[in-house]
Every structure is written in C-alpha cells, then in structure tokens.
Amino acid sequence: MEVFTRYNLLKHVTSYCTRPGFLRDRNILNRQYTIIISHKRQAIRHQIKVSTLVCSYSSDKNKHFITFEKKAEALKDAFEQRKEKLKDTEQKIRLKGEEFVRDIKHQKEVTGKKLKVKKEFIIKDILETRDKVKEKLEEVVERENAFTIPNILCVTRIVMSPYLGYIILQDNYNVALGLLVFAGVTDLLDGWIARNWKGQSTKMGSFLDPMADKVLIATLFITLTWQNLIPLALTLLIVGRDAALVIAGFVIRYMSLPPPVSIAI
C-alpha cells in the first residue's frame, strides 16, 4: 500500500442498505463494493466486503435525524401557532381595555349630566321652598295679631266667669241669666268673625275659644252645686269631662311635636 501515494475512492454501486427490502432480505449478509484505486500510471480493481452492521448503523442514524427534523418542524409549527394565539389574545385584551375605558368615560359623562340636572333641580326646589316658607311666615306674622275681635271676646268671657259665679252665689239669678245670654252671643260672634273676616283667625284664638267655654261652664256648675240646685255627681261628670279633654289636648300636642322635645318655663 505504500506504493500508492494517492487514491480516489468512488462508489460504483449505491448503498444497498437504503433499499426498502433490506430488512426482509436477511439472507444477504454483505454487499460488495467496487473500489477503484488509481495511481499516476495504473489502477487496481479490488473487492471489499462491508458488514451489514455498518449499513444498519447508517440507516438508524438517518432515521433519527429525520425524526429530529420532524420534531423540530412540529415544535416550530406549535410555537408559531402559540405565537399567533398570543397575538390574538393580546389584541382582544387591548380591544376590551379600550372598550372598558370608553364605557367609563361615557358613564362619567352621563353621571355628570345627571348630577348637574339634579343639582339644578335641588337648587330650584330650595329656592321655591324658601319663597314659600317666606310667604307662609309673612302670612303667619300677619295673622298672629293677638288683639283681634274674637280674641277679645274670648278673654271677656273668661274674665266674666268669676263674676257670674259671684252673682249666682248672691242668688241674683236674673243677672246671671243675662250674663249667660251675653256669653252665648259672644261665643257665636267670635267664631263667625274668625271664619269670615280676613286676619281675624289666629292660633291663639283657637286655644282661647274652647278654654273660655270650659271655664264658664265649670264656674256655672260649681256655683249651682254650691247652691244645691244641681247634684254633685252631675257637676263632677261635667267638670271631669272638661278637665280630661284639656289634659288630652296637651298630651296629644306633646306627642305630635318632633324630637327633641323640651319644656320651656
């Protein structure tokens, strides 16, 4: 082999190992290759035998390489698909975020408009209420004139009640009858004047009128009972009823007051 300093190895026949029926042809143990060894002036034709183990090794290596390429392609495709899905998801999230921001801005504008309308309505209502209260207060101030004709008539009956009792105790029944008629006429007049004349109806008058009647009736019954003209039981019934009505009026008034309730002395 030292004579040959240079040679070229050429495959004359393709590898038998790549043939599809290689695994079935197990009776073939080797494959002959023709190797042409060339020198400057001569060539030698020689046959060599290559073990099938080498062919099997080469085939397995190619199969593994092809499998690896397929796996790489599959991974690449999966990565690309995943990348596209991520892009789609990112786009959807961006669109939803923009839509959410638009909804918030729209809701803010709508809420601002509603608040503005409510604010204007509340201010208008406050102004109207203030004007109405002012008018009511002016009317109340105008009406609450204590020196009205009905109030004077009620006070007259209250002041006259002790004198009526004194007249009855003195057995002067004719004068007492005249005083009772006068009290009845004044009772009719104060009610009619308060209902028909402007500015004559007052809260004080609504309190004085029933009070004058009760004071007059109580004085009349007590003095007549003292004179043994009316039974005591009847007097107690009439006076007790009037007293109960007065007490009930105070209680109802106290319960109707809004809290906190205080009693001024």
From TrEMBL:
This is cardiolipin synthase (CMP-forming). The lineage of its organism: Eukaryota, Metazoa, Ecdysozoa, Arthropoda, Hexapoda. It catalyses: a CDP-1,2-diacyl-sn-glycerol + a 1,2-diacyl-sn-glycero-3-phospho-(1'-sn-glycerol) = a cardiolipin + CMP + H(+). Residues 69-96 form a coiled coil. The keyword Amino-acid biosynthesis does not apply. One of its GO terms (molecular function) is cardiolipin synthase (CMP-forming). Its EC number is 2.7.8.41. One of its GO terms (cellular component) is membrane. Keywords: Coiled coil, Membrane, Transferase, Transmembrane, Transmembrane helix. InterPro entries: CDP-alcohol_PTase-I, CDP-OH_P_trans.
